[in-house]
Amino acid sequence: MARTWKINGRFLGQPLTGVQRYATEILAAMDRLIQQRHPLTDDLAVEILAPERVDSATSGDRFPNIPVRRVGPGSGHVWEQAVLPGQARDAGLLCLCNTAPLLHPRTILCIHDLNTRLFPQSYSLPYRLYHRYVTPLAARRATRLVTVSHYSAHQITAWGLATADRITVIPNGHEHALRWTPRHSDATRKAAGADTIVVIGSPAPHKNVGMLLALAPRLDAFGFRIALVGSLDTRVFQGSGAAATSSNVTALGRLTDNQMAALTGSSLCLAFPSFAEGFGLPPLEAMALGCPVVTSDRASMPEICGDAVLYADPGQPEAWLEAFRTLRADPGLRFKLTAIGKARAALFNWTDSALAWLELMAKLDGMNNPAQLRD
């Protein structure tokens, strides 16, 4: 008898951020394992359920072995709460992007972070209210929770959303960045260089980009430039009011993956000054591409980056200035961080993470010793 699981495909109609990247890459790796007939996919029937507005043909290109079925009406939270449960009522349900229906009896929910609790000022009021009241209910009703780091798992238990025995840590992977083909735009080519610090992230307060922008005049005095990447989704985030006003700051907005690969590959380093991150995918991507990283010493970053990066206190601008100067002055250090960074990134693998999801699904299906089938 087939083991049947549905997947919450609401993310397919959303802009690609780290959360949607996680869902996409987990399912792409799961799709390959289904094609290879991995033992954990024996008797497994998987289907993505998505709102009607999602282009199922495009989704089919990404997941050729996992069918996509559009069901409606509606979209967003209303679709997720009112339509999805009925369509998945006879199956398990995977929700990989922070939200889940309250009325489904067998759900695995991935909560990436609790940043709305840690930095509420970063988020719009409707977004905060949803995650303040609905997310805890969804977490408590879910059969199991998944999160992307031990740091996030600790936050989930500390805020009382679940006990530790109900949480499985399944991290992000790095291989998607290796598929990027470095390709400059005119803007990224002009912004890149041996003195360029790449800063990625929205101006939401927890991203702490404003600290580096305030430091820009001092960086300019030492010959550094900042290439600022990213934009603000006002439906989710609230900005800090920081602006790129210094002459050594180039605001590039959103870049394609290929442009990002070209920019980081032609610059001094990636700077990631966040106060709070559930995982911190940009440093992992930069390490995979051989770009040195200077990152915050807070939240999940030490767990993910290990000894492969330079750390600085996000509340101490002088520490960041000193890290950039040290990195530029020491080619040997840059070479070392490049090598160690690639090795560190390789520890985080999408296939391993997809296998962890399949193992968890098998356990809930009553399969005996599914861990023995992973290798």
UniProtKB/TrEMBL annotation:
Domain Glycosyl transferase family: 186-342
Superkingdom of the source species: Bacteria
Keyword Transferase recorded: yes
Keywords: Transferase
Protein name, per record: Glycosyltransferase family 4 protein
Organism: Camelimonas fluminis
Residue span, Glycosyltransferase subfamily 4-like N-terminal domain: 96-174
Entry-linked InterPro entries: Glyco_trans_1, Glyco_trans_4-like_N
Membrane-spanning intervals of the chain: none
SUPFAM superfamilies reported in the protein's UniProt record: UDP-Glycosyltransferase/glycogen phosphorylase
